[in-house]
Amino acid sequence: MKIVAADVIVTSPHRNFVTLRLTTEDGLTGLGDATLNGRELAVVSYLRDHVVPLLIGRDAHRIEDTWQFLYRSAYWRRGPVTMAAIAAVDMALWDVKGKAAGMPVYQLLGGASRSGLLAYGHASGKELPELFDSVREHQEKGYQAIRVQTGVPGLKSIYGIASNATFDGNTGVRYDHEPAQRGDLPNEEDWDTRSYLRHVPTVFEAVRHEFGPELPLLHDGHHRMTPIQAARLAKSLEPYDLFWLEDCTPAENQEALRLVRQHSITPLAIGEIFNTVWDFQMIIREQLIDYVRAASTHFGGISPLKKVMDYAAQYQVRSGFHGPTDISPVGLAAQMHVGLAIHNFGIQEYMQHGARTDEVFRQSMTFTDGFLHPGDTPGLGVEMELDEAGKYPYQRAYLPYNRLADGTVHDW
Ligand code: GCO
Ligand code: MG
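# magnesium ion complex -> structure
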């Protein structure tokens, strides 16, 4: 089943998405997500200029061989641009294979291990009343697990707060909580770790007091702490029984997690900016994390996601795949198929795309009573409306950055 066309489609219904669309000689199509938030066009070039010529004429059935060929023949390993490009090819090939077999991709991965995927959404508010409203809104939409982010006294703008959110009156969906700003230059935010460390435990105490002990709560540290600061935060949050504390230290310093573990039993999740199975090797083997935060899109696709989870299963480490709105509906579908099939599923992040995005990407997935299901349409269950996509040309967008009070650039 030869690949006869490979098109790279860029569209920006609410934010930029990069999608690879493969067509085979018998007319089957497959989609793959190649979106790298804030650096989208680098992946477009990697695909168009370097990968597409290698795909034409290849057998679409040979997923593993194509993955290994793209990874090894490039010689230059890893990195988000390379791995997003390979991810898109891998997902598109699984999509094609599912369609050829007449089965949803999760069937090809071993079949369903559960009836649905527990999802968590992003509640946020600058102050407590706003945050409580946001938690309630999420509960009304069915969410049974909720991530909590708040403002910090003295800081004007901080990661994870829906200050720029827009509200879709038709669907009741709030979207674009995510930090990417359309425009010519990135937004500058401010940061003060001491103030953050003092404030966050008081927020979780208030949330537990308001919503009780049952509701699973999550929090994202977004790589901003030193090892000892992260250990302090993880320890101080223990009374509030978090489902997980995410990205408490910078992703490059994996050994930092040893120190956090020595001090705390708060479960840890990491890996949304990791690119390969190898990035997880040591921290899974030493049981320094509890949840794998990899995304299908920045991690080389479905094939490596399944591999890392099979490895993690030996250490009772579970999945918590990265599902913000900058993962397209195609990337999200890829994660849902893996999550449904593996035994060691934990939770799926699900922020919800806006109505315009849903018109560009028609999806078979469902979200019912807090549980996701990818649907039973053959392949990934996502089709792209090309005319709709064509209405929204690329718009330059940057992620923000932080400075400390003395002007030093800091992780945001
Ligand atoms: C998350 C992530 C996102 C990232 C975003 C950057 O936990 O969902 O931290 O919010 O900031 O994906 O593009
Ligand atoms: Mg995160």
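# post-check
DSSP finds 13 helices and 22 strands in the chain.
The first helix runs from residue 40 to 55.
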